[in-house]
Every structure is written in C-alpha cells, then in structure tokens.
Amino acid sequence: MGAVLGLLGLGWLNDVMDFVATVYTRLFQLLAVPTIVLAVITTFATFGSKGSGRIFGRTLIYTLLTTFAAAAVGAILYVLVAPGNLPVLDHGDRLLDSSLNHEPVPMIQTSYYDHILSVIPNNIVKPFLEGNVLSLLLLAFAVGIGLSKLPESENKAVVVKGLLGLQDLLFLLIRGLIWTLPLGIVAFSAQLSAQVSAGVVADSIGKYVLVVLGGNVIQFFVILPLFLLASGLNPIHVLSKMMPAVLMALFTKSSAATLPVTMQSAEDRLGIRRDIARFVLPICTTINMNGCAAFILVTSLFVMQNGGTPLTLGTILLWILISVVSAVGNAGVPMGCFFLTLSLMSGIGAPVAILGIILPIYTIIDMVETAENVWSDSCVCAMTNNDL
To answer: How many CB atoms lie within 10 A of CB 297?
Structure first.
C-alpha cells in the first residue's frame, strides 16, 4: 500500500507520509536509549543468580565465541558482496533525500587512542544526551555485571526489581507502538517508493539479503561444525539428533517456544546430561543469539552506508562489538533483532526509513536466524557437556 501511495506522485500525500514517518522516527529515537540500556543491564544482572560454576563459565565463553564468529562472518561477507546504496531522485526535500542524496561530510581524522578515549564516559548523563551507543553499552555492561556480583541483599533486590519494572513499563509502551506500526510501515514505504528506482533497489536489497542469509548459512554449516570438531564432536551426529528442534525453530520463529523440544532432543536423543541441558539451554535461549548478531551488524552497516557514513575498518570492528553486546542483551525485546537494530539506528540518527523495505522480507530472515540460534544453542550445550 505504501509503495502504491508513493508512486501516485501527489504532493500533499507525500507530505502526509513524510509527517507520519517523521513521527515514528522520533518515537523510535525516544525509545532507543532506554530499550538498549535496560535490556543489557537486566540480562547481565541475572548472571549471578544463574550460577557461577564451571557450567555457566563454559556456556558464556562458547556463547561469546560463536556470537563474535557470526558477526565477523557477516562483516566479511558484507565487504566482499558490497551491497550498493539505494538511489534517490533529484527532486524534493523529504526525509530520505536529506539523508541519502548528499556527499558525506569530511570526517575529522582522529587516532584510535582518541577514539577509544571518547568511548569512556566522564559524565553519566552525557552519553544519554548524545546517544553515544558504545558508551551506553559500556555503562550498561558495567552496571549489569556489577549487579550480578553484588551479594544477595534487600537493597540489591530492590534495585533489580526496579529495573525490571522500568523494563516492563518500557515494553508496554513498545507494544503500543508496535500495534500501530503498520501505519508507520506504510509511511516509510511510501517515502521510499516516491524517491527510489525500483530496479536498483531490488539489486541493492538483493545483495543485502544475500549477505544476511549467506552469513547465516555459513555460520550454520561451516563455523558451528568447526567449533564442534574442535571440541571432539561429530557435527553430523549432533545435528541429526537435534534436527526436531532446529526444524521447529525454523517454522515457529521462536527459540523460547522451541525450548521444550530442544531440551527433550538434547537429553533423550543426543544424550546430554540432564542437569547440563536444563541449565545451559534456558540460558542460551536468552543470551546466545548468533543470527541476531549477524543481522544487527549487516543491517546497521547497510543503513549507515546509505546515510553517508564511511565504512572504515575501525567502524566495522566497532559495530562487531556493538552487535555482539546488543545481541546478548536482546532478551525480552519485542520484535527481537529487527526492533533492536531499528533502535540502534535511531539512536545514532541513521536513516531508519530504509528498514521499512526490509520489514516485508524479515519473516524469511527471522525463520533462518531462529533455526541458527537453536542450532547454536545445541552446539554450546553439546560442547559444554563434552568438556565436563
């Protein structure tokens, strides 16, 4: 519907669509910072209560290793495939024109020393006001881990419950926004169809989808099996035993809904110790998001590139780190990876309208990502069981 409205070429209609899209952009920017910060803090704050033994340590190490690997594969594919920019027409001054159809502003050259130093906040309020994503993630990580290390007490319980209460309130607001999101999608799509050439868009988006799905396939059939082989396990044997869970994840698009099948397959078919399966798999369902990390990274690079941000090696490495921490802290965020990516892009002022044309194909991406996440959960559980 949005594409058709944009192709009509009616000035007043385009103005209305621009207004609606701008409203949604502002609302996403409003929710971006608290969404990221609270999700990461509450996820990491629960680490202490999940146990501090060898099982949890192994689970966390394998989760971080596989998630970093997934993000790195996505980055390498993005550089190799090199999706092009979405073109815009040379008329109008609407949202996407201002963000896409311009020469990138020359950046002041700074050393890596200065760049790293700029990430370290010296004021707890400043990162929130500036939307400094990495500083916010650093603060959230520190607070979350700090809470997990505090001894159990009434004061700690009050702080954690307060944060969880704020997160519940935020998610209520997000659900309200999501309920009206179809209107926003119409507006974003109308903007794009009024300004871009369909053929080049298909080529650009096609390469983007190739990177996302290709990264998931490589992670699924190459990287994760290599992890299993390094741990002395047969990938074909493990996958064949966990296939019911992987297939269910593919069609339900929910790791949480698949969890009972994942645990049953791990215990009864793969022979994982019951105490390990029932400890590791629920944790992995919460924090082990290989597919999400790759999606956040590739989509963020694609959106930033279209916004005129030069994709230097430093920028790519920085966003690998951001995507991994964001994916680990993604637990409980409605609409999963898509909304979190949209929040990150809104937080840095990137042209989030581009995500409007990604949303219709996100269902397929989400299916593949969820299957990969459950397969990764199974691999982490199998490797932890083998080590112990």
So the answer is: 30
The most distant pair of C-alpha atoms in the chain lies apart, rounded to whole Å, by 66
pLDDT tens column, 337-383 = 887 788 788 777 788 778 877 876 787 888 899 899 999 999 999 99
Query: 63, 123, 95, 41: which is closest to 324 by C-alpha?
Result: 63
The number of CA neighbours under 13 Å toward the Cβ of 182 is 2
Question: Are the CB atoms for 184 and 338 separated by under 8 Å?
Answer: no
pLDDT tens, position by position, 230-252? 999 999 999 999 999 999 888 87
Residue pointed to by tokens 């099996």:
225
Q: What is the predicted pLDDT for the residue at 48? A: 56
Nearest alpha-carbon partner for 192 in 276, 270, 267, 101: 101
Whole-model pTM over 0.70: yes
CA angle 385, 386, 388 (to 5 degrees): 65
Q: Give the single-character DSSP code of 89.
A: -
Positive or negative, the Cα torsion across 255, 260, 263, 265? negative
Residue 310 CA to residue 34 CA, distance in Å, equals: 27
